[in-house]
Amino acid sequence: MLEARRQNADTLRTPEWYKTATRWTQLTFVEDDPVRYDPAFWIDVFKRTKSNAVCLSAGGYIAFYPSDIPYHYVSQHLGDRDIFGALVDAARKLDMHVMARVDPHAIHADAAKAHPEWVMVNADGTPREHWAYPGIWVTNAYGEYNTVFMPEVVKEIVSKYDIDAIFANRWQGHGVDYSEDSARRFKNMFGHDLPVKADAGDPAWQAWLQWRRRVLTDIIAQWDDAVKAIKPHASFIPNMAGSSLMEFDLDVIKKHCPFLVVDHQGRRGVELGWSAGRNGKRIRATFPDRPVVLITSIGPEEEYRWKDAVTAPEEMQLWVNDGTAHGLYAWFTKFNGVVPDKRWVDPIADSFHLQAAVEPVLEATAPTAEIAVIDPSTTLRHWAPEERNNGEKHDLGFYHALVEARLPFELLSDQVLTRENLDRFKVIVLANAACLSDAQVEAIRQYVDRGGSIVGTFETSLRDENGKLRKNFGLSDVFGATLVSGPRGIVKNTYIALSGSHPLNEGYDGAERIMGGTRLIDVDVKGDAVTPFLYVPDFPDLPMEEVYPRQEPKGAGVVARETGKGGRAVYVPWNIGEIFWEVMAADHGRLIANAVRWALGKAPRITVEGPGILDLALRENAEGVALSMLNLTNPMMMKGPVRENYPLPAQTVSLEIPDGKSVSKAWLVLSDRAASFNVKDGRAEIAVDSIDRLEVLHVTWK
């Protein structure tokens, strides 16, 4: 602990302070905290969790310090106290980094009356009252509240207190603002009236998304400039969701955001535990070298907002630990300084200690994988935000199938399809990347020409970046398939039949056909492509006496080809990722895994054999590799509400040894001991006796 503090002290108040801000405590004050909360308890939490950074509520909706700015509401319980400043000082005495949280999404009645231009306007022209707390008002994120008032708040906090950053929550607005100012500025830029509803097919809606992106991007730059003018080492850090990078100008984020914060605090409904790590991959998909912090809530993340509740300890730990496995720094958040339920403290401390143990290895290595799933931002932008989860089903299905197949993979954003980024991978997966520009299509084609392999499905490249249908797939030559008709669906009771002997249809012994998709495209196969599966022409699903095929299988159910450039291409002309996510049929998961393995063209660089489900993450440097193995095995794995941890028995890791290298040491980081290994045919076989929650295998070369 003392050594960690010394390391932090070396980076305190320097431009690279964030590199040692790896374990965060966030305390979000409530209005009566000044007279009710126990600061000594929280200082003890800083120590027990080995936190080296803290995020504390400062101002915005309510100030928890004595503010001199007109209409910056100060807690009525503050009196002559300064609870924000006191905890800042306490954290600095522990050599912790400090970030001040502001929440600019609402204002009190006096401010709304004095400055009606600060208030968001509904479509009917009325000011928008807060949906959860009557008597306060939702702010207009795109106007002077965020461009005039909040910069003054930011400057006051940065001037008065010893902090490293301003962190903004709920700063991005809550839908379309129909004020005269927003309507005028929007029309001047794009020539449209403001859209009346979220409709991805409406040009006005698409234009509004672009306008919002520009306005919010400018706010990032303005607030960051205001911070740096006072404290050059400090930054403005906007809160983000896993998909937020598609909403902002990447050059501005690159310039102003030294690290990125993912606000996906826990599962909602039946969300899977690997969702935490996926958030980190989505950020790395655009900024692979930028530190990412994952916020985890100690309470449930449901629409019913039980903010003082505590999640089951194992579920909370799974969320933090999966983030750790994928290289995310840990951050827990507690709303309300008063703690009526302390059951979260020990689980959070355990997970933070786990992260502290693996940090030296993870920080010395960088994410690496042979496989990338393309994060289809260009496509998802055409979905309204509240419906985007439907557009992501294709990607989620592939994500889960690859986790089950124990194939380590990264994500790569279609916004950054550079040669350097693409050539990091041997296979790229386009799980219905329907919308791609000509430039994006060409970047993928050139990747294939350089020997890369590709797996694509359904509408991939069938539309341009604006969503307009092409006459044929942009990647038709790569897929070895041309469009005949479609897409069509929903179609029920569909099948694809095994055709010949091919690695893509292995593992279906005893079956002549397997389930097909529900959304279909009819294609012709051309050139040297083959069809390991053929489509079984439609036949009825009722009455039961009519449920039999009328025709022999014909038409492509799956297309595969050797590219002649050293790689392979697989195209599935139906919604395999989406339907696997919805139905979780084992045959579909096997087909996804078979397609990716065949496209890889060789034995995977690393394999893990043994019982159970593992979420794998591979990292490396010149000295060796680090394999994170997170235990997902649980009877509640597919539902999310994990109650108990089920340790895994022995696993065998097989690792390809680079030319000219040999194994120096295989070390189990969390078990803190050496692992036995033997070498055969250029691969090291390493025994991992058991995995509790997480294990990191660190293999070094000589």
**CATH topology of the largest domain, what is it called?**
TIM Barrel
* Helix/strand/pairing category: alpha/beta
Measure the end-to-end span: 31 Å
| CATH architectural label of the largest domain | Alpha-Beta Barrel
Helix content: 25-40%
Number of domains: 3
Summarize the biggest pleated sheet: 9 strands, mixed
Estimated radius of gyration:
27 Å
* Unreliable stretches: none
Mean pLDDT: 94
The CATH superfamily of the largest domain is identified as: Glycosidases
Number of helices: 20
**Order of strands across the biggest sheet?**
13-12-14-15-22-21-20-17-18
- Mind telling me the CATH class of the largest domain? Alpha Beta
Give the number of DSSP strands: 31
InterPro entries: Class_I_gatase-like (IPR029062), Divisome_Glycosyl_Hydrolase (IPR052177), GH (IPR017853), GHL6 (IPR028212)
Pfam families: GHL6
Features:
nine-stranded mixed β-sheet, Immunoglobulin-like, alpha/beta, eight-stranded parallel barrel, 20 helices, TIM Barrel
Task: Characterise the protein shown here.
The two termini are 31 Å apart. The protein has a nine-stranded mixed beta sheet. It is built from 20 helices and 31 strands. With 702 residues, it is α/β, with parallel strands linked by helices. The chain folds into three domains: 2-258, Glycosidases (TIM Barrel), CATH 3.20.20.80; 371-600, Class I glutamine amidotransferase (GATase) domain (Rossmann fold, 3-Layer(aba) Sandwich), CATH 3.40.50.880; 606-701, Immunoglobulin-like (Sandwich). InterPro entries: Class_I_gatase-like, Divisome_Glycosyl_Hydrolase, GH, GHL6. Pfam families: GHL6 (PF14871).
